[in-house]
């Protein structure tokens, strides 16, 4: 595969004529919503020197990197689609494409860009210097657009976008599946060529265009779903009686905070201990678990039977380790363990088995999500679904994506939904799960942040199970209840959230009150 170099192109994007009237119709905020912007209305395409010069920064690693969207991803094809869309729809703007892979390359680009009017930073994949690029640009007070290639660059995009908002930089974040909406915002760079225009003028115009494109919420009426809520006092008591194991990580400050707020002890375990139990696991029993999962699944797609048997052996190792310590929850630094050759099977199917049965298996040694799952399991008797959320404002949706998801979302005694056994998306190895989760239901998504004695929560109606071959296998789309723009631009406290079926806002608020935890609605 051929990759572009970090050299400047010799020519601008191809242009086509677009009338001033049509442009203003699609960029209404350039002439309304802020005092003085009427005089900064964009001009139609003119001489090359009249066009704003915008550095189009594509941020992604090399295709052999294991990350979102997946190993072997064709980044060049996506970049070609973006360049073509911008060339066709933004003839008033000259784009100067460049590819960066890390922070050092971002610094080099920024240092050589004195003549550039603004930046469009496109997160084509996770990693790739995008966050550093946004910080260099924002710190210099330069106008910019951040854009997410959904299910690819989202982890970096969300952090960079919030940081820019928090700092008050003239940077607009766009998270949509429609390239037309990105082009609408990008055309607002023409404001910068008007006499007296400032980066703040660009931000005001571009952000208004972005907000205007956000789809309204759909019908948020949901299927009946009565939830049996435990007594809050009993829930607090059970939290103090619970125990969490964390494998391959030892965040001492967070462990102490979980003990202080919830009274739940967390026991660190090293990789060799778990791997040793995996090596000793009964392979016949592991094969029985593999056959059980294969029989329950609607279909098996990529994994071999051996990979599923290996997952069965990992489940037995985790189960026995939890019994040994009297624990009812386990969190594993699974990616670090697998990629570092410390573990020899993914725990995904085992995690699902725990979560379906009333215990907790938590991805990536994320203890904030783990304690959230433990707490809500005691409060509502339902499993949580840890995810890396993705925003699509063109549909008013947040999509919860991960390779571990339960298939008994209403609790151990509730009905099962269909699921597929698939490989782990980023590296195309092992056995993971695509759960086809129930639609038409209200969900409550939250996370406890113990070190700040904080709980953050939003809600939404489940509307689709997406099947997109980028990023994690389970993708549950939810129509957000509330202000999706506030949710997007205020995203902090890490990427992960935990989703539960049911309207649990009031019970969570009561639990927070009992624990002395601040309760904040994100949307």
Would you write up a description of this structure?
Helix 11 (283-296) packs across helix 12 (305-325). The relative contact order is 0.11. Residues 1-48 have low confidence and may be disordered. This protein has 523 residues and is of the alpha/beta class. The chain folds into two domains: 20-212, 3-Layer(aba) Sandwich (Rossmann fold); 232-521, L-fucose Isomerase, Chain A, domain 3 (Alpha-Beta Barrel), CATH 3.20.14. 36% of the residues lie in helices and 21% in strands. It is built from 17 helices and 19 strands. The chain has helices spanning 20-26, 75-89, 103-111, 130-139, 154-167, 179-186, 199-212, 232-241, 252-262, 271-280, 283-296, 305-325, 334-339, 348-356, 367-380, 484-489, 505-515, and strands at 53-59, 94-100, 118-123, 144-148, 171-174, 244-247, 266-269, 299-300, 329-332, 360-362, 385-392, 397-402, 419-424, 429-435, 442-449, 454-465, 474-481, 497-501, 518-521. The two termini are 42 Å apart.
Topology (elements, then pairings):
Blueprint: H1 20-26, E1 53-59, H2 75-89, E2 94-100, H3 103-111, E3 118-123, H4 130-139, E4 144-148, H5 154-167, E5 171-174, H6 179-186, H7 199-212, H8 232-241, E6 244-247, H9 252-262, E7 266-269, H10 271-280, H11 283-296, E8 299-300, H12 305-325, E9 329-332, H13 334-339, H14 348-356, E10 360-362, H15 367-380, E11 385-392, E12 397-402, E13 419-424, E14 429-435, E15 442-449, E16 454-465, E17 474-481, H16 484-489, E18 497-501, H17 505-515, E19 518-521
Parallel strand pairs: 1-2, 1-3, 3-4, 4-5, 6-7, 6-9, 8-13, 9-10, 16-19
Antiparallel strand pairs: 11-12, 11-18, 12-17, 13-14, 15-16, 15-18, 16-17
Helix pairs in contact: 2-6, 3-4, 4-5, 6-7, 8-15, 8-17, 10-12, 11-12, 12-14
